[in-house]
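Hi! If you just cloned this repository, the fastest way to understand the data is to look at a raw example. We've pasted two of them here, unedited. The first protein comes first, obviously.
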Amino acid sequence: MRGPDFSGKYHRLSEFSRGAPQRVARPLCVLFPSLQSQGKIDTSLSSREQPVFDAISIPFGTKMLFNTIKLKPGVSMDDVELALGEMCNVVKNTYGGDKGGFLAGQVFTFSGFVSDKGSLNASRGADDHIAIVTYWRSFEEHEKSHADEIFNAKFAVLAEMCTDSKELGYEMLWQGEAES
């Protein structure tokens, strides 16, 4: 099974008409605005592509994998965004829903903020890193995705820019939203 080809194909991050946002399908590989500023944007869209900036819904009982990826010194988010986006797209398109148990995902970059009130440890420093949060029906389905040859090729490209990666699995105990 071949993965999606993203060579030179990037899509608009968002579109606005008369001041109101439109729901525009975008592939997961366009996670980062700098692709737009580099001129790597193509306005063609396919029906397989899903929005990447919409809210996600996580069913109770979902398994969450939290992966922290420490960047090598001198490596920036701009350097890793394409590799990260392509890797995420392989997961979404190959293992999404009934195809393999992937439910949703989120990618975060460390902002530099360390909470004084929420941190028990005396150390307040942290290296530049990315957090990849994915939600799965089971840990077994997640592990199958990592056995995928195409995923491993994409992950290897990302790994070249990193010093460490640690992926921990969590079982959901509680979830809730603020009351209106």
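Ok, and the second one:
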Amino acid sequence: MPDDLSPLRIRRLLRPARPGYTSCVTTSDRLIDLGDRQLRVRRLIPEQDDGLERTTLVFLHEGLGCIEMWRDFPQSLCNATRCTGIVYDRTGYGGSSPWPSEPGVRYMEIEADDVLPRLLAALGVEDCVLIGHSDGGTIALNYAASDPEPLRAVVTLAAHAINEPVCVGSIRSAREVFATGGLRERLARYHGGNVDACFRLWSEAWLAPGFEPMDANGRLPGIVVPVQAIQGEDDEYGSELQLGIIAGKVDGYCETRLVPDCGHAPHLQQPAYVLSEVARFVLPLSLVD
């Protein structure tokens, strides 16, 4: 689902960029060539290594996100779990290449069914936990529905199983701000030449009549790996109904956390609590047999 474009989030985006958080391909990044697109990937190494073989944490960003917009959460979680990590810019975001052809409203399904499996194969990832924020969480759920071989568990942060009226209203507001304010310029610091296309794809899809982020009835029952679903109590893009749908329809273990005093970005707005909860969930599942 979408980037957290609440009034507070918009004000933060309009501030001058903090050092280290503008989009670029750094020496720690690689452009992975999948043939029809190139994806910018950053590998994370935990500060301490206990010598045990552990799963890989794969982070899927929000609807207008990129590697930098995760801030330090991925590295902190890798440190807490002693797992290696992969953070990447999805197609058309940050330092990755544009979509080779227009995906339309199915962009999250295409990412889950086609792009993510190819990326994991190209990186040699054979065992992973997906951690997805917003759109990234929905993509993680879509991917998990086919019970793919590499997948060990899923963590979602403000994922959306359905499109709610509150979401539509928030995206309409974001579109107005993008057209009239400095939001476009600020997002361009992260997305460069991708900024107009990624905003248009995101906003037009979510505002399309009858749009749903996934086939919840068809896909969620196919998820058998453990799921942890987290959402802010004050999420501007969805209600706790999302948690109920996810927990009620998946076929495996699912735990939910509704976080007080928190909007659409739980890992940024309540970082200590969310880091603790996700690490608690991941750690018992992290050791590779």
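That's it. A detail worth noticing about the second one: The domain at 7-285 is CATH 3.40.50.1820 (Rossmann fold).
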